[in-house]
Every structure is written in structure tokens, then in C-alpha cells.
Amino acid sequence: MISKHQPSMLNTPKRLTVAACAAAIAAVFQSIPTLAQDDLALEEVIVTATRRDESLQDVAVSVAAITKELKQAQVRRLEDLATFSPSVFIRRTPGAGSAAYVNIRGVGSSDPDKSLDPPVGIIMDGMFLGTVSGVLMQNFDIERVEILRGPQGTLFGKNTTGGLVNIIRGDVTMEWGGDFSVALDEHGREDVKGVVNVPLIDDTLGIKLFGAQIKSDGWMYNTTLNEDVGGDDIINYGFAMKWAPTENFDIKVHYERMEDESDQGAYVNTNQDTDFACLLPFLGDCYRTSQDTSTSNSMNGRNFSDNEYNTTIVTANWEINSGLQLTYIGGHRDQNEQNMQHFDAGPADWLEMNYFNDWEQTSHELRLTSSFDGPFQFVAGLYSFDVDYVQRWDVAHLHFVLSLIGAYPGPLAPTSLNSNGQNQETDSIAGFVSMDYAFNDSWTLTLGGRYTKEEKDFIGGNGGVPYDPAAGDPIPPLFDPKPYADEWSEFTPSASLRWQINDDMMLWTSYAEGFKSGGFFGRQADFNIDPTFEPEYVKNYELGLKSTWLDGRLTFNPTIFFSDYEEKQESILIPVSLSNVATVVRNASTEEIFGVELEMNFQITQNWSLRANYGYIDAEYDNYIADITGDGIITDNSNLIPRNTPENTFGVITTYDADIGPGTLQTTVSYRYRDTVEIEASNAPFGHMDSINDLSGSISYLWSDNRYRITVYGKNLTDDQELAQGTIAPLTTRGWWTPPRTIGAEFAISF
Predict the structure, then answer these.
(1) pTM of the predicted model, to two decimals?
(2) Residue 203: other Cβ atoms inside 10 A
(3) In this structure, what DSSP letter does residue 138 have?
(4) pLDDT tens for each residue of 369-378
(5) Who's near 289: CB < 8 A, 6+ residues apart?
(6) SS (HEC) of 341-390
């Protein structure tokens, strides 16, 4: 039972000090003199954080928008966007196709399994992507990315307790136009991207065609295979067609297919002396004797993959009258995935797992939005989200080796596999409303709420089944399948108050609640351990300022927030036997997260711009009372550091343009700092990651009205690599490095 507590935002001297410093910095901006240079005003940024188009400076939401920065050649994919927002930590997820762990304000994914819903939502053109695989979007045909921090339960629904990343694809312009680019780098990269808009009927019907090849050799040299590994191999193509028969109605159909056959990670040997991979003399995969480095490994195979993603999105808008608009968004996504993982990370045959996943999701949203002349506005809607998935995996070598030493029943052939799996159906429905009332030109109150009801039906195999495909054995059915079913319902309210102090300054405060789905963790493989986990709940309080200075040349937006989590979900590993290490999910009683965020955008001169952000997070568990080792003993784990939660993050991006000859020389430099993090729930030493300093940049020459651009770019110019590690105790420990310094070039054409 969870004990109730009284959350306190400023209950430590450190939090008080940080809050005072933030207030002092905000006060400094009050003394900035006004300089009349209207022609240098920043371009207004429009966001959809409130499900309607509004200026970023007018919304009572902590949101960062990335627009023109997407043209920078060093911004290759989703993880490169962490530089542009405070309190954001994004890293590629090895082991799943195009997967990413997105962490916002200390809350994020820690496991790619389909039965565990991510707490940070990824939305593409209005469609929620329900799993962490297939979300590592390439910087291709994207108009804008919005990173919303904090729970977004009212307007965006469940599983957004940490926030969300809203990706808006390029529009169908109904005019001739296109963008093409080719990029090369020192690791065999050959990226080719193209987008073309074609008008079919003037101002009525248009189509957009797009395609991309993302390909590289990889920067990790494998000394066993004598070749580079860890490379990209992605094909992405599709179309979008828009029909606007009248001024009051339009409909867009978007279809795309992505094929990802990349190596999903290139592991290095970090097996410890206590791991069986090292202890068994005929394996001898020990870290202390390995020659693996940050750019070479000895794994006796590739983490190959074969993933297909088909996505269809239908968006219709009907302007009923001058004050009401009805919007429908229907989405369907089908994922067929295979991902091999050499978990032992060495040259010996010890532990390989081949994952097969079929995922199918369908969603419908019907939304009514007002645009009345009076003080009252609203957004209201209905939403449904259904998922059906089947997951299966084969374990190779482990059980055969264990049978040789009498630790698993035999005899088994060297080619034998051990099969297990799960399947689940999820049905979720919701209704939501958000209402604004402007008391006068200065004060606006927003009240909202969302009711969600969700059902899950799950079946999982209670242990693996040996079979030998080399001998013609068919895939066996699930062993002793265990069914589980449950349903949850929740109402998540929200409220905010805006005070428009003057035309350039808005003070706001907000309260929001959110929840993350409960469920049954499927990769557990031993259902003698209860797989059930309950929903995760959060209450979030924020106080922020949106301010504009120097006649629009500078914006400064500070925010203070406090999040109070109850029953926060954590996934951990529990050794059951030598042949079975179960991953389970437990509800941590309570976690408190206090933070301060500062964001600035400054047009210094006509040719020089600067963007900077800083995030501070103080996160701590309260009453984390649980069995996290599987020994049946309940322990107090409140002293653990919440994982994937850097205390400090800082990002700065500056661009300078110089007119040279017939064109413009553009120089961009970006720097990102991320504090130390723990990536293991138990805070084991191997899960500690030191702070990083990432310096990237590009030099571009643009000419012919910026239609042509040639760029030389560098990523991680300081060559500051970091090692993440994971263990399947007591079997093996593996590591994976971030990429080294990389120099590349890109040529782009726009028309």
C-alpha cells in the first residue's frame, strides 16, 4: 500500500538556491535597454501544443520548437534534437529497429518491450506512435518538431507523463517545388533524400512524393568478421495527397513505408569475472582479456535486422462556420520486425536472441475546435486507440552450453533454439475537453480534463521450449500459456492561468495530471513471478514566464516545475535460474522531481543568431519500498538515484552568415552538455555514465537565393564517446559506445 505524502516543491536549500538564481536571471532581463531595430525581430514561431495554432510566446506550456535548425546538415535524426531543449536526453536504443529512448525531465523509456508503454509520447502528423521502435525519425521531410515538457494528459492522452515529441511532416503545398540532398561521411555514409510537390488541380488537388536512402558502413570495426559493423541501411518512401474542394473543407492522405535492415547496435565485450561468459573456461569471453575498444569489437556476428513499417494517416478538416472547425485524424501502423542480438558480445557462442514482432495499431480522433469572437474558446474530442501485437523470440547457444555442464536438460544439438513469446490486445477510449475563458485582455483561465478507459488482454509463455529448426522442427506453441486481463480508467484534469502583463510579457502557472498505462510485462518468461504492474500517476505544477525583448530580437522563457509521481514504473532484471533471467516491472512508490529551465533565442545582429537553453533537475525517490532482486525480500530503495536523469543539461547553437561573392557563407556551431546519469535501476557501477561535452558544427555555402547549398559538417568534434552497459546477470555483460568524431559533407538543392 502506498502511503500518502504532502509534496513540497522547495523543501531543500539546494532547490531554494536554484529557484532564487532563476528569479535573479529573470530580473536581469528587466534591465535590458530597448534598441530600435525592428528589422531584426525574430520570426514568430507557431506551435500546436494546445491543439490549435498559436504563437509559442502565448501558450502556457513548456515547449521548444525546432524549425529552421532542421536544415543544418549535422542534425541527422531525432537524437540530435536534444541540443535544442532543456531537460531532454535522447539516445538510440540498440536491439530494436529505429528505436529511441526519449527522456524528458527525468522520465522516459528504459525497455523496448512492446508490453511496456513509453511515458514520452511520439506523435507524427497527429498519430500517436505506441512503441519505442520505429520512432528514431530521420531528419527528412520534417517541417517542425515540438518538444513538450511535462505531462500532456488532457489534450494528448495517456502515456505522456514525461511529455511528448510532436513531429510535423512537410505540407502538401499544391505548388511545384522540391528538396533534394546527398550526404557522405568518413564511415561510408551515402544518404540520398528527395521531396517533390506536384500540383494536380490548381489550389484544389496536390500530391507530395518523398523517398530517402539512409546508408552507412558503420564506425565499429569487427576483428572477428574483419569488416565494419553497426551501419545504417534504411529505405523510407511514400506520398501525401491533399484535396481541398472548397474553402471550408480539406482532406489529406499520408502513406509511408520504412524498411530498416540496419545493424541494431554493435556491442563490445564488457563481461565481468563473475559472468558465466567469463567463468566458463571453454568460453573465456572476459573483459579483462578482450581487445575491444571504443571503435572495434570482436562479436562473432552482426546484430542484423529486418524491419518493415507501414503507416497511413488520414486528416480531414471541416470549417463548419466562422466559429467552429471539426477535425478527424485516423491512423494505422503495421510493424513487422526481426532483430538479432548477440548479447555475449564476444567471439564465443554463448547467448544470442532473435526477436520477432508483429505490431498493428489503429487510432481515431474526432476533435471540435472553436474560434469565437468572444472570451470563451474550447477544444473537445473523442479518441480511440487499439493495438494487437505478437512477440516471439529464439534463444541460441545458451541452453546447449548449459546442457553440457548439466545445468539444463539434454541432450541438445548445437543448432537447437529455445522459443518463447507473448501476445496482447489493447483497447483504449477517451473523451477530452479544454476550455479557455478570457476575463479581460490580461487574464485567461484554462480548465480541462480527459477521461480514459483501457482494457488489456495478455497471454505469455511460462518458460521456453527447445526445438531444432536445422532438423526440420516447427516453431513450437507457447508452453503453459498464462492469460491475464484487466482494465483501468482514469480522469486527468488540468488548469492554467495566464497573465498578459504587457504585449511582450506573459506570466503563467499550470497544474496537470497524467497517467501511464498499467499492464503485464511480457518478456518476463517466468509467470510464477507476478507480471502485473499498476498505472503510473503524476501531478505537475509549473510557473513560467514568456518574455520578448529588444523589439522582438530576443525571447527569454524561464520555467520552474515540480512533478509528484506515484507508483512510478521501473523495469529490472531478476535471475531466476541459469537459463532464465526475468525482466520484471515494479511500481516505485513515489518520486519527486523539481526543476528549473531557461530558454533564450537572440538575433544579435542581422547576420548573427544565438539560441541557448539550460535545465536543472533534482529528482529523488520517496518510499521506494519493493523487492527489486526477486529474493522475496522487500527493501527500502529510496536512496537510489533515478535513472536517465541528468542533474544539469545545457545547449547552445549559434549561426553566423557572411556575404561572400554571389552567395552566403554560413557557419553554425552547437554545443551540448549532459551531466552524469545512472542507466541501471539498481545504480550498479557498470550503469554509471559520465558527463559528456558534445561539440558539432557545419560550414555551408549557399547561392542562387539559397537554392543551392554545399556543407561540410562535423559531429562530436571533441571525440567524446561514452559507454553504456547492460547486464543479463549472471550470464553476460555488454557495452555499446556512442559514435566517434565524424566529418561529412552534404549537397542540397531546393526549388
Answers:
(1) 0.92
(2) 10
(3) B
(4) 999 999 999 9
(5) none
(6) EECCCCCCCCCEEEEEEEEEEEEEEEEEEECCCCCEEEEEEEEEEEEEEE
